[in-house]
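Changelog-adjacent note: as of this version, every example in the card shows the full chain rather than a window. The one below runs 623 residues end to end.
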Amino acid sequence: MLPCSFNCGQGSKKYMMKIFNLIIVVFFVGTALASSEEGVMVGEGNDANRSSPVHLFNLKDEAGLVIRADSEKQQPFSTKKTCGECHNYDEISKGWHFNAHDTEVDAGRPGEPWVLVDSICRSQIPVTARGWQGTFAPQDVGITPWLFLKKFYSHFPGGSYGEMEADNPEEGIRQGISGMYEINCLACHNRSSYEDQSLAAMQVARQNYRWVPTASSGLATVEGLASSLDDFYDPEFDEGGIEVTYRQGIFDKEDKVLMDIGLPENDSCYFCHSNKDLSVSSEMEWTRDQDVHLHSGLNCIDCHRNGDDHMITRGFEHEGLAGTLSCEGCHIADHNGGKPIANRLGAPAPEHAGIPPIHFERLSCTACHSGNWPEEQAGQLRTARIHKTALHGQHNMNQRQPHIYGPVLMRGTDGKIAPHKLFWPSYWADASGEDISPINPEKVLESAGDILKEEVEKQNDWRPLTDEQITAVLNKLRNGENAPVYIAGGKMYKLAAGDKLEISEPVAAQPYAWPMAHDVRPAEQALGVNKCADCHDSKSSFFYSELPVDGPLVAQGGQQFINMIDLQGLDKRYMAAFNASFIFRPMLKFVAFGSCGLIALVVLAYVLKAIAAVTKAGTEEVE
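Full-length structure tokens:
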């Protein structure tokens, strides 16, 4: 038995150590709270160390309780409570990927919309709340936040519409079962090979909203469908429901989980931001070249950066400070009061030898460097988000519509010609003067489904419509003083006296387009590498490439087309004459240089004569 004095001393030491540890904990907690009061959380800001911190932490459920390995019933973890422990979730939720519903945000130049597609109704409507010309807010098309997730679930990162309260009691009941679709931070920041965004899309399709990050992270398996549960389902008392099983061995003795969290990698971006060139078969996809920037070792986030607020830079000129991350900002611009900062990240300074400066006033950099080389007819593309690509297994899709064309060389909102992606909207709508309000396809089918659901053979992926069918549907959509119309293929169809169709071409019927920047081609593959004739030729695809007029209307006389020059707002006769002049330019240059040489010889002869005369006069004066 140990002496009493030793026991007391040992106990005192243990007691003192507990007090010391308590002081340390209070100190750090106090520091963290002080930081929070100043608006800076542990995971925010920059302490000048560029290394990625170790992410060893407790998973927390949506009630803020720690998830433990030995819990009788496992719960999905909440990114708001787990990631929000160190990162300002509310601030992040205002970032570009999560503020799609916020009409107060500066929307910038037009971007890729969501597209509400209904092949039976012959509708494809560009949907976004950002207010880009030619688009409609979800509520304008009768889409509630709950319906938004059901329609556009596959490539949605959570937050925004996913965290908005349901608009009606029926949707509210379902939302109570499915939970909120919080921002899926791991979709971008989880560098584990387990991260599966296709699996995330499947969970959203099942209305398992609160389970999305848990399932897609690979930390657990999730079984069950919230969409199939009864409205009166109670997870506390009812059997079945959604079962969560965390992988063995992921929890340590303190119930913490180690995750490989860091800056987003290219694959994270590609899931939502990929394009499929339909001119290249799936078997030959491997022959396509990668964007020259990525091939050179850059990552998406080298140009598309953000701070703690997650306001991703979009890479176009005049985007404030972020303009330095544009083509001009990296390659040629000086944004720092006389201190040159061109050649950023080793970007080569372009020479553009022999190209008149007017080209840089009227063309964007991407006009010559981005997308496919223009062909006689605009090609078709599929985008990840619009066509729901990269979904594996049973929920794989082969969505053909809408037909996205590109590159379409047309004038952008900044007045410069640039390559665009483009599709032709089509929808039934109510018209009041120049105001057009699309009608939700489901409502159209309620009124005129007997006409639109008739079995027909598809033409170019469309179920064709005749003038007689349009007339019949418009008559069924009449309701009081409203004037129903149908928009498709750049035209608006409206009933006139005697049930005759009145056809016009309002702005609302024009194709919706947004600029494309990738894939970037190197200088050796840019327009102009073959000199002026790449564009200034009587058959140049830059001006005369054909864009199909796409829609369900049975065309009279076959497929109709418009030329790029029509979208560029240029005078056809002037450009034809101007381009034709390039045929004679080599001859004119020969004549001009020959004439200059002849004049130079004549001048030289007179100069020599003058020198001889002066010399002779000087000699005579000396004599």
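Structural remarks: DSSP finds 20 helices and 18 strands in the chain.
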